[in-house]
Amino acid sequence: MLQTLHIKNFALIEHLNIDFTGNFSTITGETGAGKSILLGALGLVLGNRADLTSLKDKEQKCVIEAYFKIGNYHLRDFFTDNDLDYEEVTIIRREILPSGKSRAFVNDSPVNLAELQELGTYLIDIHSQQQTRELSDEQYQLQILDAVAGNSKLLEEYKKQLSAYKTIQAELKKLTEQKGTLHKEQDYNTYLLNELTNAKLQVGEQAELEGSLEKLSNVEFIKESIGKALAVANEEQLGTVQSLKEIKAALQKISSISEEYGVFYERVSSLLIELDDVAESLSQSYEGLSDDPEELERINQKLQLIYSLQKKHQVATVEELLAIQADLESKVILVEGLDDAIAQKEAEAEKAKAATDAVAVKLHEARQKAIPVLTDKITAILAQLGMPNARFKFLLTQGDTYYGNGKDAINLQFSANKGTDFGLMKKVASGGEMSRIMLAVKAVLANYSKLPSIIFDEIDTGVSGEVAVKMATIMKDMSAEMQVFAITHLPQIAAKGDRQYKVFKTTADNNTVSEVKLLTTDERIREIAEMISGKDVSETALTHAKALLN
């Protein structure tokens, strides 16, 4: 239940602290006094969007704090799931900064608006005239049935099954589209794959082929150069090898005289060994050189094939071509295996559909059972509210469309008087009748929803007299189970409250502010008398006010 509301710098309110009880409270005041400001402030605490127009002083921040006593409402799981500190008296704070940014806190922990809105659904129901119009909305009508039927667990199960079914459907659609796309590309992919496969590409092959091509293309020049090198090295009289041998022999004679000469001798010996080895290798390479036009043509053709494939696929290496080949192979294999994958996914979808349908049927059956219960309860309350002949007809049909709350479509028809045909409620019910029907619905739901608090914003629209007294009595009865607020212009309803708050405006120094005060007994008599007769209060009005309060 709402215990305390602090408001600072919001709309016409400079600063306000107000405490509430857990019974039936009425809120009165002239039109434009600021009753809607209280609802606006509560709306911000519960997660509504905010902007700079909410600030009275645009240079100061707006702060709204609401204290909720929640110990009896089983909300620990919500706080645990959202990593929030649980307190039996929970403080929700909303701040709007002059920059336009807003912040929200639950027990001093920052939260986003989605979390705040979800928490708000467990704390308070703010009924407005807009919500009365929602009575004609099919989804709202189903929510009423679900509350009476106790379908919360079934709805959770349905949403879980529907989510799984939609996920599988999306996967099946993706596979089917993939199959269509790949089938269109299949012939071309197969052609490209065969082209690459037939090329028999190997890692490192391109560099090796390019080296061989260079050698074969210059074989005569290479032979000439190697031959010349061998001749210089091995010429019998003046060859490099012979010269090194003579140097080695000369140094050998003096190598034992000094370590320095010994080093020279070793170095020349190493040069001679290395030169011998180079000459031997050059000789072998020379012997292996030959003019081979056929091999040259083969290498040239293979390289041209590689270059052509690289240009076609816009790559620069054989390794990249091999990667493309592997990718094409997977695509070709995937097409061949897609039919099996689609068949398997279709079976999964059929199973998920059956599971979703089974829960939808349970929801439908539970709603059907709740219809007579809800109808009897509402018509009994409406009889008290001056509508003894009101009748409802809930037409519930299950279709093939999957909605977020089942497969049901609902058509609520209404007749207010004997001898009149049923019609759509939004077309045949007057404003006053709609107000009474909504109050009856809320009174029934109060026994099922277990919400801590409810605020009725002028639910008395279009009613007066004894009907207003009955409406007040029903709200008073509801307050035995929950905290009830009624914003009203009717003295019959205002007088029924355990407490009465007055919203009023004051003006000083060209500054208008809205204020709220808890009325004493004498102040209540005066306020209710003014509601009866206007500012010029008569003795008759005062007497009537006292009678209403008693």
TrEMBL record:
Entry's transmembrane regions: none
Gene Ontology molecular function, alphabetical: ATP binding
Domain of life of the organism encoding this protein: Bacteria
UniProt keywords, alphabetically: ATP-binding, Coiled coil, DNA damage, DNA repair, Nucleotide-binding
Any one annotated GO CC term: bacterial nucleoid
Any matching Pfam family: SMC_N
CDD domains given in the database record: ABC_RecN (cd03241)
One of the GO BP terms on file: DNA repair
InterPro entries from the UniProt entry: DNA_recomb/repair_RecN (IPR004604), P-loop_NTPase (IPR027417), RecF/RecN/SMC_N (IPR003395)
Residue ranges constituting the RecF/RecN/SMC N-terminal domain according to the UniProt record: 1-508
Coiled-coil ranges from the UniProt annotation: 155-185
Protein role: May be involved in recombinational repair of damaged DNA.
Assigned protein family: Belongs to the RecN family.
Name the UniProt record assigns to this protein: DNA repair protein RecN
Organism: Flavobacterium akiainvivens
